[in-house]
Design goal:
By secondary structure, this protein is an alpha/beta fold. It has one domain: Aldolase class I (TIM Barrel, Alpha-Beta Barrel). Strands 1-2-3-4-5-6-7-8 form an 8-stranded parallel barrel, surrounded by 8 helices. The radius of gyration is 20 Å and the shape is globular.
Length: about 375
């Protein structure tokens, strides 16, 4: 396959609006030089990385970060200066260097913002900065942390409409988003695996959701190993999940942007071409840029419900509802309904809890790294 790396700015859709509103083009993908360029004609491409060199290479519209990505980036020698700057900034806030939890937490906040500021020097759109996973079930603390992060960005000259605050899509996360959105602090609802979560996020008027694709596939491959070969393209359970959410949102005129996330292969990405946004890891950006696979529009521009979505594995309810329920009347979501639907969805329950634990574990590792550096000062 050809390995053309030429990119043109003209294929980047969308402005710096947090919702990423843009005019999608139905240009034939054959006009593009590779699959990445073809995808950019249909969806806003976002880079799922904290590595500046990757951002410069692929020129995405936006960038997303999380504790796992920033732990990886902070471990790279070329970003040591940002850790140093974060410690100095924390020292100014607290008056002295310390090893206590409050000081280390301040360093983490400063580090997240310093990375975000540098990323915004590269991407023309927005950056997503995550609230600690440890606050996933605490509305007040999540709101307070989000306000603090936005204020810190403002102190660096970054307007709040260029920042998305990432919150886990728990009930509490949605309640926090509801408060923050009223203050024009825009939210990216992450760790989203179910229809119930998607409805709750939209009802909270969240700016954007990040429904995970690959982690849903991981679950079903493990649960149904005999069907692994079937889980490709439109039959991939993660792809089905995003399609269902996307079509439901468009049918009921929700303004929340759908940004598909957590891909395992480029087939999943191509199967969702036309989704509002897609956030893609560097390895898959590289693979797309070296591929000449066609990228036809699957979502948007009159394609809603055009394809029949395969039924979820027998004996389960994908995302807690059947396809017919998802495509039917608008669902009224309250806390009892949310918790029951999530409880009945074994996949989403497991993956949400697993994701929160994983992000928190990596955040604790980052704090350990900071403490080790502080001890040597």
């Amino acid at each position: 396959m050809p390995n053309s790396k030429k990119r043109t700015g003209s294929t980047l859709d969308g402005g710096a609006s947090p919702a990423g509103k843009h005019q999608k083009k139905d240009t034939n993908s054959a006009a593009a030089q590779n699959a990445l360029e073809a995808l950019r004609l249909l969806s806003v491409v976002v880079a799922d990385t904290g590595d500046f060199e990757t951002l410069k290479k692929y020129v995405p519209q936006d960038a997303t970060t999380n504790p796992s990505l920033l732990l990886k980036a902070a471990s790279m020698p070329q970003y040591a200066h940002l850790m140093d700057k974060s410690i100095e900034a924390a020292k100014k806030v607290h008056g002295k260097v310390a090893l206590d939890d409050a000081f280390v937490e301040e360093v983490v906040d400063q580090l997240f913002v310093f990375f975000g500021v540098e990323i915004l020097k590269i991407v023309p759109g927005v950056v997503s900065t995550e609230v600690s996973a440890a606050l996933s079930f605490d509305v007040d603390a999540s709101v307070a942390k989000a306000r603090k992060l936005i204020q810190m960005y403002k102190e660096h000259g970054i307007e709040q409409d260029r920042v998305l605050i990432k919150l886990a899509t728990t009930w509490e996360g949605c309640e926090a988003a509801k408060i923050l959105e009223k203050e024009n602090i825009h939210c990216n609802m992450t760790l989203l695996f179910s229809f119930a979560q998607a409805v709750a996020a939209a009802e909270a008027k969240a700016t954007l959701i990040s429904p995970f694709v690959g982690r849903i596939l991981d679950y079903y491959k493990k649960a149904h190993p005999e069907k692994v070969a079937e889980y490709v393209g439109a039959s991939d359970p993660g792809v089905q999940s995003v399609k269902r959410i996307y079509n439901y949102y468009k049918k009921h005129n929700y303004k929340t942007t759908v940004m598909a996330a957590s891909f395992r292969n480029i087939g999943e990405i191509i199967a969702l071409a036309g989704c509002d946004k897609v956030t893609v890891a560097p390895a898959l950006l590289e693979e797309l840029s070296g591929s000449d696979l066609p990228v036809p529009r699957v979502l948007g521009a009159g394609t809603e419900n055009a394809e029949e979505v395969a039924s979820p594995p027998r004996g389960s309810q994908e995302n807690g509802v059947t396809k017919d329920e998802a495509d039917a009347e608008k669902l009224e979501m309250d806390e009892k309904t949310f918790r029951w639907m999530l409880n009945e969805d074994a996949m989403a329950t497991e993956k949400l809890a697993e994701g929160i634990r994983s992000f928190n574990r990596d955040l604790l590792s980052l704090k350990d790294m900071i403490r080790e550096k502080l001890r040597k000062m």
